[in-house]
């Protein structure tokens, strides 16, 4: 019976994020980008500090609520032309419709 369950992956929660070395993908990207750029420019130490500061800032802005919370906040507070690069059809955040 246990052999049948081994082929399935059951997340702990419905919105469990994909993680790399314990970090969500967006945070891992945020850390590795400055570090790799720093190694390429022979400024590895300084860019490690920058990566740490960026990681702390993003963790503070997310407030423990996950990646989609951060994306939602960016959608509401940044101009819509920024997101047109990634999403072709997206309503403007200024057009708010209230549902009763």
UniProtKB/TrEMBL annotation:
Keyword Flavoprotein in record: no
Keyword Transmembrane helix: yes
Pfam family, one: TraL
Residue ranges of the TM segments: 35-61, 73-90
Keywords: Cell outer membrane, Conjugation, Membrane, Transmembrane, Transmembrane helix
Chief location of this protein within or outside the cell: membrane
Compartments, record wording: Cell outer membrane
NCBIfam families: TraL_TIGR
Stated name of the protein: Protein TraL
Species annotation: Rouxiella silvae
């Amino acid at each position: 019976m246990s052999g049948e369950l081994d082929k399935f992956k059951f997340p702990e929660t419905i919105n469990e994020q994909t993680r790399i070395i314990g970090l969500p993908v967006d945070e891992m990207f945020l850390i590795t980008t400055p570090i790799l750029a720093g190694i390429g420019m022979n400024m590895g130490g300084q860019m490690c500090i920058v990566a740490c500061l960026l990681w702390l800032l993003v963790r503070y802005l997310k407030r423990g609520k996950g990646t989609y919370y951060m994306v939602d906040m960016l959608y509401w507070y940044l101009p819509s032309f920024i997101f047109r690069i990634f999403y072709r059809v997206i309503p403007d955040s200024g057009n708010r419709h209230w549902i009763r």
